[in-house]
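Input record (one chain):
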Amino acid sequence: MRIRRIAVSALLVAAVVVPLGSGAAMAESKSHAAPSQGHHSEHKPKKTKKPPKAVKFIAAGTVTAVDATAGTVTVKVKGGTKNVRRSTVTITVPSTARIVVNGAGKTLADIGVGYGITVTGTASDEGFTAARIEARGKKSGVKPTPTPTASPTPTDEPTDEPTDDPTDGPTDDPTDGPTDDPTATPTLTPTA
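The corresponding structure, as predicted from the sequence alone:
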């Protein structure tokens, strides 16, 4: 039993000492092989910054403005990807963008304010660029102006004929005498 303990202890010591010794030897051999002049990061060439990648976006909402000559549409976004949701964005529409209005291929000039719209495209540091637009709605023409109607004019002169309509409230003139109408609830007077 004692020999077994000694053998196990020797194996444990060897398992710990051998890796420590070999690690020190390797570190020493590396320092002799290539002289170091600082941190390892200085040996690596610095990475050049890549241009930011264009991120796809989807915006669904209502058209608030259209500028066909500038090629932009402004949308009050209700849903879509998180970078545009619940905001108002101006989207550049290139001539290569596919535009569908009420199920038919159209141009940006065919989209009107108030249309429901869904735009897919890319977002970059320069802004939002549309690749596909789907719009639905009716373009409103000139809105008709309401025509005023003739309203009755009030007069200050009383009429001689009584009306069947009761008054809304008390009148300024009190009655001359008691009325013949009994009250709905009797009044009780205490007797002694």
